[in-house]
């Protein structure tokens, strides 16, 4: 997602008489350089240097009209914090980066009062962050030199995290089928979804049936040709593949028409398996949609679908999974699912295989399951859930670790062996439970603590780490 970025830079004219004549111009050039630097991350709105409360009020109007995703407060020098606060106090939902982009990395021996004024950016930064903290605003402070690679490396996770949050709030989530009866740990009420600005589209059984019927034979044949080029399909009969492909195309069409970024299906009810028109699971649809960066959870678990979407935006891969069993002796946890998945997390030891989903038979036989090994290396588990204490909100639960191997082919689905970084498997899984994780998780490659922290802050929710 290309972000809408506000650049807020302040200047204080109190010292003009004591400084060289080109001092203000040098601060304007500094802010313009920052504007050009930030343009690589999105569309920048910069109302010019703010050197008074009146100009701050003008900037506030500009920022409000721009409907920003993030504001970068980057002072050119020390200045009254009221300048910055007036400019953003009335847009409380926007995440703030307090950026100390110094022009120099060292303090020279001949440092004098004039240089202290010119290089007073850190003073201006802490003046403003105090005001942000007093007013309980979500922000992060980043400091480095403007031309430093480290500055870039520190900003990229921020923009990824903000982008992940905006992906949740600026798209729709598809629901087909209610959660399995009694699965109250995966439910989310309309009021709970509204707290994180999630908009849902619910498709009825009859609407899905109509879409399913309308898919042409030509479209199915074309899709099957592509599927066979991507996966090993020799274990499937043509009728099984055709029916699941028809279903995948029907759901793809629904997603395109409704600006869908993720969601949840419940295959174990009268919409999918026990529907005389469809009569199979939607695992192939989940797998195919993941190729288009659309992430779905099963059993009607919309919170897991949202977690998958956050993970996909941050890491590029996001696998719906359950945490099946602890191997206490070898200190790892079996991560797997029932045959759906984001194949971009494939480890490559074996071909990606399509199988008949005969463990979850429907009225029209098996659907199509996907099976593959998971990429070894650093990995992170995510779980998202509504909570009621200490206040009504949501909680993102994060566990960093690694996939140490993947070889449980009998699962007939994606599978891997996850080892926690923070301790032995028994205590870490106990913490996972204590924090309120649901029984479905998202597995993403890499360690995205910074990105996930920013995403949670932008959504205004809790984050806890195992």
Structure description:
This protein has 466 residues and is α/β, with parallel strands linked by helices. It folds into two domains: 3-147, Rossmann fold, CATH 3.40.50.10940; 172-465, L-fucose Isomerase, Chain A, domain 3, CATH 3.20.14. It is 37% helix and 25% strand. It is built from 14 helices and 18 strands. The protein has helices at residues 23-38, 53-66, 81-88, 113-118, 121-134, 149-169, 190-195, 205-214, 217-230, 238-257, 283-290, 302-315, 425-434, 449-459; strands at 3-8, 42-45, 70-73, 95-102, 139-145, 172-176, 199-202, 260-265, 295-297, 319-327, 332-336, 353-362, 365-371, 377-387, 393-405, 415-420, 441-445, 462-465. The strands form four sheets. It has a six-stranded antiparallel β-barrel. A five-stranded parallel sheet has the order 2-1-3-4-5, with helices on both faces. It has a four-stranded parallel sheet with strand order 7-6-8-9, sandwiched between helices. Strand 6 (172-176), helix 7 (190-195) and strand 7 form a beta-alpha-beta unit. The model has no long low-confidence stretch (mean pLDDT 95).
Compile the SSE list and pairings.
Layout: E1 3-8, H1 23-38, E2 42-45, H2 53-66, E3 70-73, H3 81-88, E4 95-102, H4 113-118, H5 121-134, E5 139-145, H6 149-169, E6 172-176, H7 190-195, E7 199-202, H8 205-214, H9 217-230, H10 238-257, E8 260-265, H11 283-290, E9 295-297, H12 302-315, E10 319-327, E11 332-336, E12 353-362, E13 365-371, E14 377-387, E15 393-405, E16 415-420, H13 425-434, E17 441-445, H14 449-459, E18 462-465
Parallel strand pairs: 1-2, 1-3, 3-4, 4-5, 6-7, 6-8, 8-9, 15-18
Antiparallel strand pairs: 10-11, 10-17, 11-16, 12-13, 14-15, 14-17, 15-16
Helix pairs in contact: 2-3, 3-5, 6-12, 6-14, 8-10, 9-10, 10-11
């Amino acid at each position: 997602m290309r972000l809408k970025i506000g650049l807020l830079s302040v200047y204080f004219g109190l010292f003009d008489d004591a400084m060289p004549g080109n001092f203000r111009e040098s601060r304007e050039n500094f802010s313009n350089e920052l504007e050009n630097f930030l343009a690589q991350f999105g569309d920048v709105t910069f109302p010019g240097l703010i050197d008074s409360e009146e100009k701050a009020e003008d900037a506030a109007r500009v920022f409000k009209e721009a409907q920003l995703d993030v504001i970068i407060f980057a002072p050119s020098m020390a200045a009254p914090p009221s300048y910055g606060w007036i400019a953003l106090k009335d847009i409380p939902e926007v995440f703030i980066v307090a950026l100390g982009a110094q022009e120099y990395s060292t303090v020279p021996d001949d440092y004098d009062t004039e240089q202290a004024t010119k290089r007073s950016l850190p003073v201006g930064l802490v003046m403003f962050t105090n005001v942000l903290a007093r007013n309980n605003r979500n922000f992060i402070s980043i400091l480095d030199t403007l031309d430093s690679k480290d500055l870039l490396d520190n900003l990229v996770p921020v923009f990824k995290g903000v982008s992940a949050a905006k992906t949740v709030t600026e798209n729709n989530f598809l629901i087909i089928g209610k959660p399995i009866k009694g699965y109250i740990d995966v439910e989310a009420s309309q009021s709970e979804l509204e707290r994180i600005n999630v908009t849902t589209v619910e498709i009825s059984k009859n609407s899905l049936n109509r879409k399913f019927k309308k898919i042409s034979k030509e479209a199915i044949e074309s899709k099957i040709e592509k599927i066979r080029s991507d996966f090993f399909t020799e274990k499937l009969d043509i009728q099984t593949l055709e029916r699941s492909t028809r279903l995948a195309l029907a759901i793809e069409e629904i997603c395109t028409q409704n600006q869908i970024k993720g969601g949840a299906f419940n295959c174990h009810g009268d919409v999918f398996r026990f529907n005389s028109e469809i009569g199979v699971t939607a695992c192939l649809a989940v797998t195919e949609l993941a190729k288009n960066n659309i992430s779905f959870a099963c059993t009607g678990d919309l919170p897991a679908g949202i977690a998958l979407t956050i993970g996909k935006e941050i890491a590029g891969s996001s696998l719906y999974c359950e945490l099946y069993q602890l191997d206490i002796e070898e200190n790892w946890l079996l991560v797997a699912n029932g045959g759906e998945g984001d194949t971009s997390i494939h480890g490559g030891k074996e071909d990606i295989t399509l199988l008949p989903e005969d463990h979850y038979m429907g009225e029209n036989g098996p659907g199509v399951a996907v099976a593959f090994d998971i990429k070894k290396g650093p990995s992170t588990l995510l779980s998202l859930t509504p909570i009621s204490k200490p206040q009504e909100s949501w909680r993102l639960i994060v566990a960093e670790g690694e996939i140490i191997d993947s070889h449980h082919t009998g699962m007939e689905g994606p599978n891997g062996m996850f080892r926690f970084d923070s301790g032995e498997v028994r205590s870490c899984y106990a913490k996972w439970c204590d924090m309120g994780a649901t029984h479905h998780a998202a597995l993403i490659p890499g360690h995205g603590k910074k990105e996930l922290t920013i995403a949670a802050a932008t959504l205004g929710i809790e984050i806890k780490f195992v």
